Amino acid sequence: MWGWVSAVILGFISISAFEREKLKQAVVFNSLCLVSLAYLILNQQQSPSMASLWVIAGLAVSLIADFLRIQHKQSKLCFTAFLVVQLLYSKAFWMQLSGAMVWWLPALLIAASIVAFFLLLPQIDTLIFPVTVMGMMLLQMTWASGEVWLNHPTSASLLGFVGCISFMVSALLLAIHDFRQPFRFGHCLIGGSYLVAQSLIVASVVL
Q: Which of 80, 138, 152, 176 lies deepest, with the highest CB count within 10 Å?
């Protein structure tokens, strides 16, 4: 319990520091938050599953991606690192699947994504390619986590599905806020939804 509390506190200190443009402090506390989440996986499982190891790998790459994002460095490398994170998390979910797919879920996700894309098109017109690439990666990650939940309807799998949805929300808010039109409490909303996403994905392999 205290491990989760510590991770959340570290995460929100990082978000607050980033909002106040204390970038070094934000990097330190964000890194501590991700390390704490990785420690929760290792500490609560005597023999971590393969899915857990893929999530830990995702957290490791997240350290690099978050450092670049907070420091506003190497935007292309940062973008690529986030894609790798989503790919690693996707692997953690896909490998838990067996049996037939539920095809209405990807159809629903694709339909919702298309509607959201056209609604937000005026705000992301200069970012169509990167938004489309990341959107596809997030879509398949969310599909994988949703399939796990539908095949194994447990509280842990539901947390993973909600975590992936939170990841999508965070990425969408980031694209609009950083590259198109900043909005009030943008950094808090982006950082908060991102922290929730990371925490819930970790919880899905710990619980």
A: 138
Question: What are φ and ψ of residue 124, in 5° steps?
Answer: -125, 25
Residue recorded with tokens 């690439």: 133
Structural contact between residues 44 and 206, judged by C-beta atoms closer than 8 angstroms:
yes
Cα distance between residue 149 and residue 162, in whole Å: 10
CA 163 to CA 142: how far, in whole Å?
Answer: 9
Residue 102 DSSP code: -
Q: Which residue has the tokens 């194994």?
A: 152
- Burial degree of 130 (CB within 10 A; 0-12, 13-18, 19+): middle
SS3 22: coil
| C-alpha–C-alpha distance, residues 81 and 66, integer Å | 9
Taking the C-alpha atoms of residue 161 and residue 204, their distance in angstroms, rounded to an integer, is 9
Of 36, 51, 45, whose CA–CA distance to 3 is shortest? 36
Structure tokens at 182: 């900043």
Provide the pLDDT for residue 172. 81
- pTM, to two decimals: 0.91
What is the tens place of the pLDDT at every residue in 173-185? 887 776 667 777 7
How many residues in the chain?
207
Q: How large is the average pLDDT for residues 84-108?
A: 89
Considering just the CA atoms, what is the radius of gyration of the chain in Å? 17
Q: Look up residue 20 and give its two tokens.
A: 């106040």
Where does 45-154 have alpha helices with state H?
50-71, 75-94, 104-120, 128-151
